[in-house]
Design goal:
Chain A has 178 residues and is an alpha+beta fold. Chain A has helices at residues 16-28, 43-48, 56-82, 95-121, 158-166; strands at 6-13, 34-37, 145-150, 172-177. In chain A, helix 3 packs antiparallel against helix 4. Chain A is rod-shaped and about 80 Å long. The relative contact order of chain A is 0.29. Chain B contains 17 helices and no strands. Chain B has helices at 9-12, 31-43, 49-75, 89-114, 124-145, 171-204, 208-218, 225-258, 270-296, 305-335, 339-350, 354-366, 374-377, 380-407, 422-445, 451-456, 465-468. Classes of the chains: A alpha+beta (178), B mainly alpha (471).
Chain lengths: 178, 471
């Protein structure tokens, strides 16, 4: 297999401990283009490979603010400009009556932004990813943990990287085609 | 290092249990067995006669709904028992009942997540599904009740050639926004929770058709650490958003009544007591579903007596809030000194439909006091029976508020009565058909217990002290 056709070298672990320790070692060794795979959320692994902060909360906040504003302005514009109606002598901008829908729109926009933002940042839906070329990768959604150091990493050197991963707690180290 | 949702191990394993208390997950499970057990219910278990029988029965009821709705569209709402003065009748009773049932799902999935209640992990998935299906049933009723349901889109603000816009000062329009937002957020929450489990299904399925369908739904999820981090962040945010949302939805439903000036409806106790009632009936429905599911699918080790016990305690607590609401209604009638309020209460308790009021007191307040007894809380059959009684009681509560509240107002000359017709019953039974058909399909097609969250309950999923203590 040539370097060009290589996605990376993948180490398989049996425990979350093994994965997290290997991630930290790899990060300390200077590797940056890598990813850890686990069957359940393992925040320590994300921290260990240097991914400490997500943009999802900020996006959600922006979505919520936009939702609230559009909810209120929609009602304001309709009742003050587009279709003014005198209901029981209330002012046209009877804002207390607009609170409920402003609130609901805030939640709606924030919620949709959180979900769509998360999926977009994650690049999902993604029909193809080379990691699935690993013959035993289906265990990543079951009971095994994987660390992939990708071939695009500047420090990546097939033989060297393989030796590095073999020195961890990995039960198996394999090359994965692109 | 902060681990976000409910992964605090100690509460979920044996260590901190009180004497005689059941654990959340019975010992002996590993990452493998948890996965296999839940996956095999869908992918390996053959269709059983019991499932088929239940499905056919409820699918039959669903067809009753189709017939009743078709006849309704053909003849109009006159086929129902509604008329002036009781214009709302069964349709709105059922609407409030169904939407209330949905609330327990969101309470379990969002509020208990924020409160780090690890035990919720095994019941949240089907409780969320229950929410989704209950909201679908609820949504039917305002639509059908409109009389001309094909014009239902008029409730939404869109530029139109008639030059008119909806009236945003009306609680009925607030309801449209609250319920549609609730349905959307519940669906998102449910689907987001499913993605990692669908990936497990994709990786485990051997049938190529199943593999393709689950694969498409999983959208290429691969369990990357970066993805998990954003995922957990979004999931937690969604829970934080769903929490005030679920409390607002039944509050807004109660505004449909409380904003009016009708005696018996125009009270400030309505929002909190509606929300408590919603969660009360919702947990009753969770138990009505959980008890047979754990029995027939052999998941007693995952949905343990602890879950039943905890759910029963929540029912007991919310039931007492509901009892407080009933007491306050009676107290207002007395203390307001308002003639019409007093008459409303006397008519409710001793009028022609007084039986409904006393049944409601018995079903919602007296009988559920059995839940103080631990033996009842950990006995599936007793709990199942109590839950059915509560569901019936909560239905009667809405019947008493709506029908009894409307049939005699200020002027005796405008009094009337209300008798439900066979079509009223047909539509109600039909939505039960819709709900249970959907539930039957759900348990066979989707992971009814959240696999990846169950994994986090296992001791082997925890990082050891020295690894977790790093930096």
């Amino acid at each position: 297999m040539t370097d060009a056709g290589l996605h990376g070298i993948v180490a398989e672990f049996e425990t979350p401990d093994g994965l997290v320790i290997a991630c930290r070692k790899a990060y300390d060794a200077g590797y940056r283009l890598m990813d850890a795979y686990s069957p359940f959320p393992l925040e320590a692994a994300a921290d260990a490979i240097g991914f400490k902060k997500t943009q999802v909360p900020l996006l959600t906040l922006i979505g919520g603010i936009l939702g609230g504003l559009s909810g209120f302005l929609l009602q304001y514009w309709i009742h003050v400009y587009a279709f003014p109606l005198n209901i029981g002598g209330r002012p046209l901008n009877s804002w207390p009556s607009f609170i409920v829908i402003t609130f609901e729109m805030t939640i709606l926009f924030a919620g949709i932004t959180a979900v769509v933002g998360m999926l977009t940042l994650n690049g999902l839906p993604q029909p193809y990813h080379p990691i699935f070329n690993h013959p035993r990768f289906s265990a990543a959604s079951r009971d095994r943990f994987f660390l992939c150091i990708e071939a695009d990493d500047p420090l990546f050197e097939p033989a060297e990287t393989r030796r590095f991963l073999e020195a961890t707690d990995a039960v198996d180290v394999a090359e994965v085609a692109d | 290092m902060e681990r976000v949702p409910d992964t605090n191990a100690s509460v979920t394993t044996q260590e901190r249990l009180l004497p005689g208390q059941a654990p959340v997950l019975l010992p002996g499970h590993t990452l493998e067995t948890v996965t296999d057990k839940i996956v095999s219910i869908v992918l390996r278990r053959p269709v059983t006669l019991g499932w088929l029988g239940g499905f056919v029965f409820f699918f039959g009821l669903l067809n009753v709904l189709m017939l009743a709705a078709a006849y309704l569209f053909f003849r109009g709402v006159g086929i129902w028992g509604i008329n002036i003065p009781v214009g709302w009748g069964f349709a709105i009773v059922n609407f409030v009942w169904w939407i209330g049932i949905g609330h327990a799902g969101t309470l379990i999935s969002a509020i208990l997540l924020l409160l780090k209640q690890g035990w919720r992990n095994s019941i949240n998935r089907f409780a969320e599904a229950m929410t989704l299906f209950a909201v679908s049933c609820a949504g039917m009723f305002p639509l059908l009740h409109m009389g001309r349901p094909w014009l239902a889109y008029w409730v939404f603000p869109y530029p139109n050639t008639m030059g008119v816009w909806p009236q945003f000062r009306s609680p009925l329009l607030w309801d449209v926004f609250a319920v549609s937002t609730y349905a959307t957020i519940s669906a998102l929450f449910w689907f987001i929770g499913l993605i990692p489990d669908l990936a497990t299904f994709r990786d485990t399925a051997t049938n190529p058709v199943a593999k393709t369908i689950y694969g498409l739904l999983a959208m290429g999820w691969r369990g990357s650490a970066r993805h998990w981090k954003r995922y957990e962040s979004a999931y937690l945010l969604l829970a934080g958003l769903a929490t005030p949302l679920v409390l607002s939805v039944h509050t807004v439903v109660s505004f449909d009544f409380a904003i009016s000036i009708l005696p018996g409806w125009h009270t400030t106790v309505f929002p909190p007591y509606f929300v408590a009632g919603a969660i009360y009936s919702g947990f009753a429905m969770v138990l009505v579903l959980a008890i047979p599911i754990r029995h027939f699918y052999g998941v007693e080790d995952m949905i343990t007596l602890r879950h039943l016990d905890n759910s029963a305690k929540i029912m007991l607590g919310t039931g007492l809030i509901v009892a407080y609401g009933y007491t306050m209604e009676a107290f207002y009638a007395y203390y307001s000194g308002n003639f019409y309020e007093r008459f409303m209460f006397m008519n409710r308790a001793f009028g022609p439909m007084g039986w409904a009021y006393w049944c409601l007191i018995a079903f919602n307040i007296l009988i559920p006091q059995l839940l103080w007894i631990r033996k009842v809380r950990v006995s599936p059959p007793m709990l199942f029976a109590t839950s059915l009684v509560v569901l019936l009681g909560m239905w009667l509560e809405r019947f008493v508020i709506i029908v009894v509240g409307l049939h005699r107002d200020f002027l005796p000359s405008s009094w009337g009565s209300y008798v439900a017709t066979r079509w009223d019953y047909a539509v109600y039974a039909g939505t039960l058909g819709l709900f249970f058909t959907a539930m039957f399909l759900f348990v066979r097609l989707m992971p009814m217990i959240t696999i990846f969250e169950m994994r986090t309950l296992l001791p082997e999923a925890k990082l050891s002290e020295e690894v977790a203590a790093h930096d």
